[in-house]
Design goal:
It contains 8 helices and 5 strands; from the N terminus they run E-H-E-H-H-E-H-H-E-H-H-E-H. It is α/β, with parallel strands linked by helices. The structure holds thymidine-5'-diphosphate.
């Protein structure tokens, strides 16, 4: 079972991913907990480059995220799923659809095409999207911002709105949650969906 967590920066998705991992392990399941960009040595190197490195064009950025993802799927995610483990991933392809496809305005279909190729079409079974509007996200933001978090306000607004669009586009796979709820309420909603899936 492959589960991903998505949402704008500061939506609380990493907390929910960690809580789900803890719960599943408590139930005795093998769980691979991972994140994007990252999850492999190449992925962590790309993470450093794309979040803390030089400026780059939108397609260069999309291609770097796709590079990290290709390696992640081949080296970690696919082997884990093949042996029957659960994979819980903090961000996956939907981050590229929203940040690069909608935020950088490359187009969702074009970015999906690139990612479908490099992942051999692997999509999560279940994706939780924590929806938070741009104002609420800004109010939660910290002092140390990476290259993408430093993007201008219209970009952040497109990302926040883009996640809503995405949930509507993939209704079977994507579950939209209200990130303004408490962490405990969100955790219970996540468990409820996982139990039913
Ligand atoms: P995240 O792990 O949420 O950062 P942090 O360590 O600060 O919690 O994600 C890193 C950033 O990368 C985030 O701003 C979203 C961005 N991103 C993309 O733009 N496209 C992608 O495909 C991925 C995976 C992340």
């Amino acid at each position: 079972m492959f589960v991903s967590f998505e949402g704008p920066d500061w939506s609380g998705k990493s907390t929910q991913a960690a809580r789900l991992v803890e719960w599943l392990r408590g139930e005795g399941r093998e769980v691979v907990a991972t994140r994007e960009p990252g999850g492999t040595p190449l992925g962590e190197a790309v993470r450093d480059l794309v979040l803390h490195g030089v400026e780059m064009s939108p397609w260069a950025e999309a291609a770097l995220f796709a590079t990290a993802r290709a390696e992640h799927v081949a080296a970690l995610i696919q082997p884990a799923l093949a042996r029957g483990a659960w994979v819980v991933c903090d961000r996956y392809v939907d981050s590229s659809l929203v940040y690069q496809g909608i935020g950088r305005e490359l187009g969702v279909d074009a970015v999906l095409g690139l990612n479908a190729t490099v992942t051999e079409g692997l999509l999560p079974d279940l994706t939780f999207v924590l929806l938070l509007d741009a104002e609420a996200a800004a109010a939660r933001s910290g002092a140390e911002l990476d290259r993408i978090e430093r993007a201008d306000e219209p970009f952040r607004r497109r990302v926040a709105d883009g996640y809503g669009t995405l949930a509507a586009r993939f209704p079977g796979r994507v579950v939209a949650l209200d990130a303004s709820r408490t962490p405990d309420e969100l955790e219970e909603q996540v468990r409820e969906h996982v139990r039913r899936s």
